[in-house]
DNA sequence: TTGTAGGCGTTATCAT
DNA sequence: ATGATAACGCCTACAA
């Protein structure tokens, strides 16, 4: 099997007795090229099996029509939907998407940021690793006016685009909902508190309790690290074993909420009568488990689309200003059986 | 905000009074460069904030350390795990991963294949779109000796790498399992039959029935197009409404199997006594639904890793031969409550 | 409307 | 052990 060499615009130029510049322009419908020439060139390009070399174009123009994505791990419902939204939007605009996973490691995140920079991505979308506290490794993008969007897990301070939900009000709404169902002792599965997605949810929870004159009982607030099913089981068992167990649980994700449901069922507790439960994210499992899990909707695909659009419009307008623009997307309380007492 | 120009090896060369070639070599620890020089160069590169430009390197060497991935859609548990495995393996080898979604459209797949070629990917991993019948748009990669791996949804005929499970034997095993549980009338949710993942599963199902002297009843074989939850509901209702309903269901995916469980429960049918159910994939929902869904394990992450490794080792050895290499990964019957009668 | 020519940053080749 | 130079394929002033 012989490898044949790639056809270049130079080859086409030679065949048609035209200049390479003419070919280059004809191929992108430049207005100064006659319709006939354009047609002729495109036909020949097709016949010869020409494939543009985006590397060469990128090198020349120092831009790549590529968006880099830096997330913790792909195989989570929320993240894969987020990426799907990014890819969809990027593809329509003729952009490629490079995906990288930090696996929630800070050092990996730093390395990947470098690698993405080396690939000369046109823009970058990032959801921070759990471990990350310092975000100075993103400064390199700012310095080069490469649009940077933080999505969902955003840093507290960084002058750039941020696309997120209002975690505080979501936490507040979730808790308020449980209160309205008659819950008096509401527990909270809290995620890692240095990620403000989670600390804000907790803040909303606490404020709702205060607002409704319910005591804030530290025993009922469980701090998670990974928010896994196993952690959820442990927390649930702990809570249900209390002398004075909770009658409501607000979990910062659905996975742990589901484990609470399973755990309660095993113990013969009635849901939602004995304990009402609400999760966060609206993962597929939420609608499938029995009883259906009430939850907070998290518009993953839309967040992806929005993030990609921020990048694209920044590139289009080639703004020179380093603006801070925070976009909040809506969430809603989705009530299913796990919390419907009335 | 001023954009500063990128630092190049040329800049470093100037500062150190060395040739660019020396810098280039020093940066990659070339053996002909003295240890001192290497150290000096690296230090200076660091100080000046040098970032290699992979575009330039790629253009020069006509290779990019990038793997292109072409799948239907990302936000499915199986696919996102597959990609996770690919990315992980690629990253360790210093490769980037470009993700594209065909959304199961043939024309999109053709366009994306072109786009990936234009990006000069070093290799490509593809799981075919549902619509795709003709695969000639992949010939361009073969012609250039760019390693191509089809994974899971592979074409019937195409001389290249294929990574898959033995769908026939998986279908056979699933059906046999139901038979061993005492099922006599086993229905099958069959996926689109021109994708051989699904046709093979069906073939295994049919052969198992024959082997055990059970009649093959065409009424019990439902042909799906998308294998969605909704399609599953429709099929389940149809089956349970039959004068002589099935006492076992083998579904080609978990999503539809779950809908069958829900549907059966609503009708007051006992699982697995009245109807035993087995799915395919071992999606997260399988272990969460009640009763737990028996299923066929599908090693998604491992398939991703394996596919990526095929690419990497091909590139390393720079084989010139167009070999056909099919890798089968193991699947297992994972028995949960939905089919455990004994 | 088309052509000329230089350069994007890197690396491989050949020389020193 | 290091240097000089050409080439990768494309685009964009500028010129004609």
Description of the structure:
Two copies of one chain form a homodimer. Chain A has 13 helices and twelve strands. The model of chain A has no long low-confidence stretch (mean pLDDT 94). The first copy, chain A, has 342 residues and is α/β, with parallel strands linked by helices. In chain A, the strands form three sheets. Chain A has a six-stranded parallel β-sheet with strand order 2-1-3-4-5-11, with helices on both faces. Chain A has a four-stranded parallel β-sheet with strand order 7-6-8-9, sandwiched between helices. In chain A, α8 runs parallel beside α9. Chains A and B meet through α4, α5, β2, α6 and α7 of A and α4, α5, β2, α6 and α7 of B. Chain B binds a DNA duplex (16 and 16 nucleotides) through α2 and α4.
Question: Which short descriptors sum up this protein?
Answer:
13 helices; homodimer; four-stranded parallel beta sheet; alpha/beta
Summary of the model, kept short:
Chain A is α/β, with parallel strands linked by helices and 342 residues long.
> What is the percent of helical residues of chain A?
40-55%
The biggest sheet of chain A, with number of strands, parallel, antiparallel or mixed sense and barrel status, is: 6 strands, parallel
- The overall strand count of chain A is 12
CA-to-CA gap between the ends of chain A? 72 Å
Order of helical and strand elements of chain A: HHHHEHEHEHEEHEHEHEHEHEHEE
Instruction: Describe the oligomeric state of these chains in a short phrase.
Output: homodimer
Which two chains share the most extensive interface? Answer: A-B, 59 and 59 residues
- What best-fitting shape of chain A do the alpha-carbon axes yield? elongated
Radius of gyration of chain A: 26 Å
Total helical segments of chain A:
13
Q: What structural class do you assign from the helix and strand content of chain A?
A: alpha/beta
**Low-confidence parts of chain A, pLDDT < 50 over ≥5 residues?**
none
Mean of pLDDT of chain A: 94
Indicate the proportion of strand residues of chain A: 5-15%
């Amino acid at each position: 099997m012989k490898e044949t060499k790639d056809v270049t615009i130079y080859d086409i130029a030679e065949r048609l007795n035209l200049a390479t510049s003419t070919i280059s322009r004809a191929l992108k419908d430049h207005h100064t090229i006659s319709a006939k020439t354009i047609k002729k060139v495109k036909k020949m390009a097709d016949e010869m099996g020409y494939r543009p070399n985006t590397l060469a174009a990128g090198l020349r123009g120092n831009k790549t029509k590529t968006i880099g994505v830096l997330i913790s791990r792909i195989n989570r419902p929320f993240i894969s939907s987020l990426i799907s939204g990014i890819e969809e939007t990027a593809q329509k605009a003729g952009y490629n998407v490079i995906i990288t996973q930090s696996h929630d490691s800070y050092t990996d995140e730093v390395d990947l940021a470098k690698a993405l920079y080396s690939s000369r991505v046109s823009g970058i979308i990032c959801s921070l690793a759990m471990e990350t506290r310092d975000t100075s490794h993103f400064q390199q993008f700012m310095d080069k006016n490469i649009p940077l969007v933080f999505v969902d897990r955003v840093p507290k301070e960084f002058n750039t685009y941020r696309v997120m939900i209002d975690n505080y009000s979501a936490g507040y709404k979730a808790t308020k909902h449980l209160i309205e169902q008659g819950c008096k002792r509401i527990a909270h599965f809290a995620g890692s508190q240095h990620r403000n997605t989670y600390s804000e949810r907790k803040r909303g929870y606490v404020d709702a309790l205060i607002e409704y004159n319910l005591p804030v009982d530290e025993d009922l607030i469980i701090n998670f690290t990974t928010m896994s099913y196993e952690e959820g089981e442990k927390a649930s068992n702990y809570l249900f074993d209390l002398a004075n167990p909770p009658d409501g649980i607000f979990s910062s994700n659905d996975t742990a909420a589901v484990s609470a449901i399973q755990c309660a069922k095993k113990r013969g507790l009635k849901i939602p009568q004995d304990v009402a439960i609400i999760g966060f994210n609206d993962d597929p499992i939420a609608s499938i488990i029995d009883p259906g899990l009430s939850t907070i909707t998290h518009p993953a695909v839309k967040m992806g689309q929005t993030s990609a659009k921020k990048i694209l419009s920044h590139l289009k307008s080639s703004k020179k200003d380093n603006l801070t623009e925070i976009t909040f997307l809506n969430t809603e309380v989705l009530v299913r059986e796990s919390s419907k007492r009335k």
